[in-house]
Specification:
alpha+beta; Beta-Lactamase; 5 domains; 6-stranded antiparallel beta sheet; 5-stranded antiparallel beta sheet; 21 helices; 16 strands; 55% helix
């Protein structure tokens, strides 16, 4: 017979071995204490029961981790499948089938919203259903789908008909009853901040979804939204290309140059639609053009370059790129390069730069335009499948400075995906170039935001920039100088910050806007200013006036001198202003000799520089003195307590 302690140790070891072997839960039941030499004490039994409970908890945790890993693996497979080039209807069918299998729903369907009346129409469904089939109309009000659209987030109910948290519609309730549905979930399908439909999953029994399941189906909804957007874009692109090829065929005449351009364009478009990368398309175009080729995006980043492309003067190339984007036509640089914008309508997606082997002939320029069109199609397709495209960055800044329904945490996550860390200090700059924010100014803003790892957008014909930094004044001066040099026009900039969280960005933007308007009201167009630089006007314009900073900036050296040398320069200043600027009357108030006041005023001039006696500066000094005295008066009673 083994001692009791040995029995306890053996039982604990057995529990650990069961955990290591991933044994089923029923194996963790206690063994009879027949192997103990004596009855097992109550304390030991309690210890064993506690150990068994913890072992079962660990077993359950491991099981949940395995389930989560399996779900994530299935989600990755789904994402891989959604990248295949389906047409829209086939893609929707894949999504609902995957949703039903991934979450073990009895049925799933996708409904797309009609912008005209707000109603949604079921496009595809999966699972056994008799009424929720393609063509079924979901009312514009009531139900979990409309609740999900209003919240821009997944919405679910364990038992639909008994849940009164959301408005019901008679038509939907009737269908839910006919299908025998209980658990129901809807995930909004979104493009930017707008909702164009919903992915539904339903069970014919009451079902409470776990947080992991909700996260999983939410991720599936995001993937589905992006895949649908890409499929729609591809379908629209194919249609536009068909129309474009028809227009080209009508415009072609018998000339060899035009036939060459049409043939090259067709071959390049076939490569694009065949899934070839930008490097392959650029190499083929360079061979057709008879030279070396470089492709850049709208911000000036080099996306592809073929062999033999010469070294370039970046400053010259940047200026000529701005000219090409402004004129929306090919132009020639001083060193013989030809730059052609790749456009979709009037939107510039990039630039194709040709270094011809010799003087460019007319047919080469035609081929260059065809290459730019093909490149624009490829860039548009890539932008449609890439959430970090410039359009998304502009919309993100619009959401940050506007009244977005998205939570600050969601905006911060979106920003991190774009490489912008909103938890680092940033400043907001609003630039208003003379003549508006289009053309060269807009192209420069996109490039500047990229170089600074920031964001840019346009509001009311002004450029809005969010860039890393802690000094809004210095950032404003830099933007004024650089943008004025690029455009050759006056640029007025209001700045504010720094801010290190997405939440306060709306207020920071408003403060920068007020600074810009103040510069205009003061007749100082062509300059830049922050609230700090505007002095006491900045206190009025700022959302949260920084009085200590204003006092320190205005009379800080005088206060510091008094603290170090135990002098009375601050009181001398107060007496000087109170006496109307008379040193003699100030001396009478202070009970000192007038020469003493004169020496103190000389010391103040050394500390603040002679400008402290100029009218505007004197007003700021007097305001700072009054604020300093008020702050001390308020603090003194509190400290006396």
């Amino acid at each position: 017979m083994r001692p009791t302690d040995d029995f306890v140790q053996d039982e604990l070891l057995r529990l650990l071995e069961l955990l290591a072997a991933e044994a089923p839960p029923h194996r963790f039941q206690p063994l009879p204490a027949t192997g103990a030499a004596a009855p097992v004490p109550a304390e030991s039994l309690a210890l064993l029961n506690r150990a068994r409970t913890l072992a079962l908890d660990v077993h359950g945790l491991l099981t949940r981790h395995q389930q989560r890993e399996a779900a994530l693996a299935a989600l990755v497979d789904t994402a891989r499948e959604l990248t295949l080039p389906y047409d829209v209807d086939a893609l929707l069918q894949v999504i609902v089938r995957r949703a039903r299998l991934l979450l073990n729903f009895d049925m799933a369907w996708i409904a797309l919203r009609d912008p005209a009346d707000g109603r949604s129409h079921v496009r595809v469904s999966d699972g056994h259903a008799s009424t929720i089939t393609p063509g079924f109309v979901i009312p514009a009000q009531g139900g979990v789908g409309n609740a999900a659209a209003e919240r821009s987030a997944p919405y679910w109910t364990a038992d639909y008909l008994t849940d009164d948290r959301f408005p019901h519609s008679a038509a939907t309730d009737e269908v839910v009853t006919a299908e025998g549905l209980h658990g129901l979930m809807a995930v909004p399908l979104k493009e930017g901040s707008s909702t164009f439909g919903a992915l539904y999953g339903a069970n014919r029994s009451v079902r409470h979804l776990t947080p992991d399941e909700i996260t999983l189906v939410s991720s599936l909804g995001d993937l589905a939204s992006l895949a649908i957007k890409k499929a729609r874009l591809l379908a629209r692109t194919r249609s536009e290309l068909s129309e474009l090829e028809l227009d080209v065929s009508r415009a072609l005449d018998s000339s060899t140059a035009e036939r060459l351009a049409g043939g090259v364009h067709t071959r390049l478009i076939d490569m694009v639609l065949g899934g070839r990368g930008l490097g392959e398309v650029a190499a083929r175009a360079a061979a057709e053009l008879g030279g070396a080729l470089m492709v850049r995006d709208a911000t000036g980043r080099t996306l592809a370059v073929t062999a033999g492309f010469p070294d370039v003067d970046e400053a010259e190339l940047f200026q000529r790129t701005l000219d090409a984007h402004t004129e929306l036509a090919p132009i020639r640089s001083a060193d013989g390069l030809w730059l052609c914008p790749a456009t979709a309508g009037r939107e510039v997606l990039g630039t194709v730069v040709l270094a011809p082997d010799g003087p460019a002939a007319d047919y080469q320029l035609r081929l260059l335009r065809a290459t730019a069109q093909s490149t624009a199609v490829l860039l548009r397709i890539q932008a449609g499948a890439d959430t970090s495209a410039d359009g998304g960055r502009s919309q993100l800044l619009q959401d940050l400075i506007g009244d977005s329904p998205r939570a600050p945490e969601q905006l911060a996550v979106h920003a991190r995906r774009l490489g912008v860390a909103l938890d680092d200090p940033h400043v907001v700059l609003i630039a208003r170039p003379d003549g508006g924010a289009g053309g060269r100014a807009l192209v420069w803003a996109s490039s500047y935001a990229h170089r600074m790892s920031g964001l840019q957008t346009t509001v009311d014909d002004c450029l809005v920039l969010l860039v890393p930094g802690t000094d809004p004044s210095a950032a404003g001066r830099a933007v004024t100088a650089e943008l004025a040099s690029v455009t050759g026009r006056r640029v007025t900039v209001g700045s504010a910050g720094p801010v290190a969280h997405p939440g306060p960005l709306h207020g920071t933007y408003q403060e920068a806007r007020r600074c810009l308007e103040a510069l205009t009201a003061l007749g100082t167009d062509g300059g830049s200013a922050s609230a700090q630089e505007l002095g006491f006007l900045g206190l009025l314009l700022a959302d949260s006036p920084d009085i200590p900073s204003f006092v320190q900036t205005t009379i800080g050296p005088v206060i510091a001198y008094d603290d170090r040398h135990r002098t009375d320069l601050v009181h001398t200043l107060e007496a000087y202003y109170a006496s109307g600027g008379s040193p003699r009357r100030a001396a009478e108030t202070l009970h000192v000799h007038p020469n003493t006041v004169s020496r103190r005023l000389e010391r103040i001039t050394e500390l603040l520089e002679p400008a402290w006696q100029e009218p505007m500066r004197a007003l700021e000094v007097q305001l700072a003195l009054r604020l300093q005295r008020t702050r001390h008066a308020i603090r003194s009673p509190l400290s006396a307590r």
